[in-house]
Amino acid sequence: MTNIFSLKNKTAIVTGALGLLGKKHCEALAEAGANVVVADMDEAASEKFAASLGEQHGGLKVDVTSELSLKTARDKILTRYGSIDILVNNAAINDMFENPGMAKELSAFENYPLDAFKKSLDVNVTGVFLASQVFGTVMAEQGSGSIINIASTYGIVGPDQSIYRNECGEQTFYKSPVYPVTKGAVVNFTRFLAAYWGSKGVRVNTLSPGGVENSQNEFFVQNYSAKTLLGRMAQPTDYQGALVFLASDASAYMTGANLVVDGGWTAI
């Protein structure tokens, strides 16, 4: 069974690779044997993190909203490794407001800024489209490959705004409209691309993670955990096995699917 999970001699690119989960995705792919391309906006940091994984890995500056940036990265990857076998579309914007005191007001649907909506659409949806087009075309031409689109439980169900209420019952923040909109689009884009490239040997699946514990307020961690069947938020490493499964031959007969790993959040 070990062999079907092996990614030896495979080349994998992870977008948004310097984020909390992006780094864990890279580590998992590297441990499974892949040559990992760490792709993010900070070239020096990408190269440094890639070097920490091992000398065979590389870091590149990649802007997923720029076709030129993606094509430049594609050419560099093919020159060095000769193939592109795995694409993890991980780059995404998740709302952060510079002024915490304004978070409640700005995150409310009635006030949500149009510019913020458009920016997230550009990265979370257009970025997935462009990266899949540029790197996936290489896979289609070589007759094999695995594309993994990172979505979210909020691409499946609507946000429960009550989990953002503190111990006093005050709403501290609203999950804004754009994140669920974009992640829902990613889930259905996966189905389109799986149907389009199935005959070319390119598998396309979604990985939908739940919330990750990352120094949030204690009331939020408790509220979130109470809604999961396992009674906790995810740890950053909880998605590594699922990612390697989707990248490897262990999921060879799986395409167009949405693998939900959320501790049971969406089960009830």
From TrEMBL:
Keywords: Oxidoreductase. InterPro entries: NAD(P)-bd_dom_sf, Sc_DH/Rdtase_CS, SDR_fam. This is NAD(P)-dependent dehydrogenase (Short-subunit alcohol dehydrogenase family). SUPFAM superfamilies: NAD(P)-binding Rossmann-fold domains. PROSITE patterns: ADH_SHORT. Signal peptide: none annotated. One of its GO terms (molecular function) is oxidoreductase activity, acting on the CH-OH group of donors, NAD or NADP as acceptor. Belongs to the short-chain dehydrogenases/reductases (SDR) family. Gene3D superfamilies: NAD(P)-binding Rossmann-like Domain. The keyword Oxidoreductase applies. Pfam families: adh_short_C2 (PF13561). PANTHER family: 3-OXOACYL-[ACYL-CARRIER-PROTEIN] REDUCTASE, SHORT-CHAIN DEHYDROGENASES/REDUCTASES FAMILY MEMBER.
